[in-house]
Description:
Number of helices: 8
CATH class of the largest domain: Alpha Beta
CATH superfamily of the largest domain: SPOUT methyltransferase, trefoil knot domain
Number of domains: 2
CATH topology of the largest domain: Alpha/beta knot
Bound molecules: adenine
CATH architecture of the largest domain: 3-Layer(aba) Sandwich
Oligomer: single chain
Helix content: 25-40%
Number of strands: 9
Order of helices and strands: EHHEEEHEHEHEHHEEH
Shape: elongated
Largest sheet: 5 strands, parallel
Strand content: 15-25%
Radius of gyration: 22 Å
Structural class: alpha/beta
Amino acid sequence: MHIDILTLFPNMFESPFGDSIIKRAIEKKAVAIDLHNIRDYTLSKQKSVDEYAFGGGAGMVMQIEPIDLCMEKLKAEKDYDEIIYLSPDGELFDQKMANMLSTKKNLMFLCGHYKGVDERVREHLITKEISIGDYVLTGGELATAVVVDAIVRLIPGVLSDETSALSDSFQDDLISPPVYTRPSEYKGWKVPEILLSGHQAKIEEWRHEQSIERTKKRRPDLLK
Length: 224
Ligand code: ADE
């Protein structure tokens, strides 16, 4: 998979993509992630990328030209499955959307800032709009990092134990069962007996029951 990210703040991605599983996925070439600074595409002498909104009002609006020029360059090199804009008014991101996007070849993400982007970007250049939740972040960078993380870990070969993505919470509309490790007793707090029994079939049955109980209690909406 190839991911291109258009941003005014490329440094914000250093840490989320520079450690742990995503770093290894990049090293293994399961995914390539390229960051593009939108400011490099402005034709204005002052290097400006934003302007006051027509009609007035507080906040700056990201201009269409540098965004379009950057996208034009990338689109001449690759065909994109989706060109995604992160915005609190987009479609709510969930595991199903992560699964769907993880099967794609080329994805482009546009991170907005300030008051957002000129609406014509959304009308003419964007193919999908995603929100990661009903709250407002300072910009699309952290939201993009969340979406990219959720997608990349699903690419075959990225997780060492491939079945572990299949048993994630939400994959079958159920929350994952609890997990325990050594010691089997700590401060008198004991691990459920069944997990120490060695009966694999019974353990799986117990885990499934726990998943259902947890989902009923914590996320009954998933069972509908
Ligand atoms: N940009 C700002 N807030 C956001 C959110 N909640 N989801 C996606 N992009 C955003």
